[in-house]
Amino acid sequence: MADILTPALGESVSEASIAKWTKKVGDAVKKDEVLVELETDKVSLEVVAPADGVLAAINAAEGDTVVPGTVLGSVSEGASAPAAAPAAAAAPAAAPAASGGASIEIAVPTMGESVAEGSIGTWLKKSGDTVAKDELLVEIETDKVAVEVSAPAAGVLTIAADNGSTVTPGQVIGSISASGAAAAAPAAAPIAAAPANTGSAQAPASAHLSPAVQRVVSENNLNPASLSATGPKGNITKADAIAAIGAAAPSGPAAAAAPAAPRADQPREERVKMTRLRQTIARRLKESQNTAAQLTTFNEVDMTNVMALRAQYKEVFEKRHGVKLGFMSFFTKAVVQALHEIPAVNAEIDGTDIIYKNHYDIGVAVGTDKGLVVPVLRDADTLSLAGIEKGIGALGKAARDGALTMDQMQGGTFTITNGGTYGSLMSTPILNAPQSGILGMHNIVQRPMAINGEVKIRPMMYLALSYDHRIVDGKEAVTFLVRIKELLEDPARALLDL
Prior knowledge:
Elements: E1 2-5, E2 16-21, E3 28-29, E4 34-39, E5 44-48, E6 53-58, E7 65-66, E8 71-77, H1 81-98, E9 103-107, E10 118-120, E11 130-131, E12 136-141, E13 146-150, E14 155-159, E15 166-167, E16 172-177, H2 178-198, H3 202-208, H4 211-219, H5 238-248, H6 253-257, H7 260-265, H8 276-291, E17 294-302, H9 304-321, H10 327-341, E18 347-350, E19 353-356, E20 362-364, E21 366-367, E22 372-373, E23 376-377, H11 385-400, E24 414-418, E25 437-441, E26 445-451, E27 454-468, H12 474-489, H13 492-496
């Protein structure tokens, strides 16, 4: 008899509640099969079977509160052997087909530190399809990143986990019958040859398109065979598909009539399950609104001097440091100096305590195809302009590639978000809890300004500071934003520490 124990729940988490049992007493279970889901105030955890056998007892019902080490139930080891016998007896019938070679398992890869589960996206192949080695088969979505799973070998695919299923690292989601490829391919070739001509773009598309790309292709009536593939392992990325839309647009009168055909068959509504990342974003933003007393104050900054400084030194800067000089480094420097002077904006509330941070880890909001993520630039106060640009560039690339680690996404003390890259003129950003401040940058627009009694055209940007009014007073918020304005309009002040 093997006990099913509540695992360690993480630092500072002392209890959890039973969310759902996936098996009933008397059901046969396999080792490492998910039996019960636990929920804490931080994360959800899955508890797996400690051995093969039968679920003999359930000691904690759904909704019960448990602590680490609690015995949730037990598995009677070895009792599943008789139940497996009929399956074993039936196995010889299938054995001849597989006897020609081994079957290679397709396992869920590691999805990042502290990421315990993911969801199967859309399989790009069906069971029985022939696949090539390294061909993209499916995307697994987590609340942080999307992980691509490719074929470990050439052969015939067997799918063991359906679309939308919850999976854990190491779980087998399918297999490749290497021997079946050789036998199945010649037999399938004569049958497949005829439909290949009638199916034109659809057949090659499925081999290289992720669900997001496939949607762009189908909505814009693109031919996947004509798209250039710049993604890893020769896969077509969403950027490739979007670029092809622009290239195909000026194709003449025929192109203007083309959209009418897909619209006739297009449903008026489409229901799509939210990705785990989108669910996490939605939950955290709403929690932030419900918890903090959020208020936004605005100002505007004349970008003339920063733009002139950047134009003067950008070529020398890039040659010297190997990175382009952007505006984010100037804003980050100004924010860090303002945080030094107004420590309440670099603090957070924990119960009835205020935690003042003496380190300056700046979160940088990055928009990706999967959603908004906020990687953290550590110890920004110790970095030069070049160090800031390199750090932000590396974090942005990791975010777009889905390669961010949990450590890179936690522990920020203040956040900067730049809606200006998308053309935003003004916005009220939402706090990235538990932080007490977030700065919104916006589009730079040439506007007439009164300068020393004269009207002049200046490049102006609106700044927005959203802050938690429970900890930051209005005077502190306005002073903080004015300080950033001063440092940007006269960059020499930052160099002279004025």
